[in-house]
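Endonuclease III
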Amino acid sequence: MPATYASSPAEKTQENHAALNRFYPPLTLDKPRRSPMRELISTVLSHRTTHADEELAYDRMLEAFGDWAGVLAAPTAELAHAIRTTRWPDTQAPRIQEILRRIKAERGEFSLDFLSDWTTEQAMDWLNDMPGIGLKTASLVLLFNFHKPVLPVDAHVHRVAQRVGMIGPKVSVEKAHQLLLEQLPKDALTLLNFHKHNYWHGQQICFFLKPNCARCPLKGFCNYYQEHFGPATLEALAATPAHWDEAWGKLPH
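Tokens:
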């Protein structure tokens, strides 16, 4: 049975996954988009920063200092200047250097490849012990690079989950990692698609301000839609596009 407005959070999570799998292009567990080290440091740079500014900061950092050894040895003020397009460069610069220092000291090289042989719990604990590395960053690295069964929850995924009713309205981003993961199969491909599809949905339709509810395939069981427009009519459901239209905008990587 399809989910309804009265369905449980778990039922809504399952229906969300099925609906967005039909709406957005499906993903596969191909070669990771970035190396583990780049994924880690880029995600640190991305906090409250646009993707374009994150990429610019990363490129300037490597252009200025050459490699991870150069970034670690750089004067911290110069590193902060190189990553100045991020939200908090003066905070992130020493944080990045401490992360690099600890990886080199503990592993003897600037590499995270060893995490592939660790259990998910061991790898998560090790990453979360790093300065500035939280559940989202650790989960992104472990899911994207090592196909561990974890679920990254960023602001977009969190917003969609709250509005639909997959989690409660007062559930924090940190708590949402656990609650949503408990409602999904512990399968990396499923979790990758759930994360990316809800990430895209938050960016392209379920905006923070003025969400485009007319295009949303979740309106038939979304709490936000019911609260603002009433139960979706047959006409509103029939008018919902079946698939994402690239004419609306290009989906990010």
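The chain has a mean pLDDT of 94.
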